[in-house]
């Protein structure tokens, strides 16, 4: 008895794709299953119906595999592949809008930061200008108070002491050279008032420096003699303290002549020129500290500050020379 004739293998196609490994694996799986079906057919013809069902399943799996290769989830950018394997990336409108918004936001932040820096710089300059004006005003007002104290001492107190019977001995030697000191101080204030400028006026600083530099030689001449004579002032005042009645009269005259300062000795007033000449460098340097180097009068201010320091050095040298 002849066995069942051998059936030829069913034709099938293997779809190749260079872009998807899934298509290769599906094709290999399909060939393996078809080979198994062919072997089953060789073993017996009674499985023909099952083989037909199996072939239908293989065709269904092949179509499903091919469809799944071309299905991809949506992304923000679309990739299009042509036959030459060139990739083109298409940008979604949402990304462009996001980039533009980010750029606008960064520009806004930069403008706000620049505006804030400008405001801070303006505020710093305003504070510096106020401090400069306060330093200038302190020099002028302290010079006026200083001259007023010397006038009280040399006019009111001195005249009252001369009216004592008998007048204190060597009284004139205590006021030696004080008239010259008062004269240069009065001239400095007069020069500052000539142009009728206030300390907040930018031109006032220039006028102050020019006035101080113009009087520097006279200031040196007056103060160096006064400071040399100050040791004699202290000796004379100590001699007055040894006479109780005389000293009590002097204290009474001082308190009645200048009740607002509560002074208790002549040296309270007579030491002021010694303190004043030493204070000029500090006052001028304070003004310079709060003056912008771009100020038109900055060079004059720097010169005036250096001159005040040099004045003190020469005066101290002269005093030491005279003492020797």
TrEMBL record:
PROSITE patterns: DH_2 (PS50010). It comes from the Eukaryota. InterPro entries: DBL_dom_sf, DH_dom, Dynamin-Rho_GEF. Residues 36-62 have a biased composition (Basic and acidic residues). Residues 131-318 form the DH domain. Residues 1-81, 110-129 are annotated as: Disordered. CDD domains: RhoGEF. Residues 1-12 have a biased composition (Pro residues). PANTHER family: NUCLEAR FUSION PROTEIN FUS2 (PTHR22834), RHO GUANINE NUCLEOTIDE EXCHANGE FACTOR 37 (PTHR22834:SF9). This is DH domain-containing protein. The lineage of its organism: Eukaryota, Metazoa, Chordata, Craniata, Vertebrata.
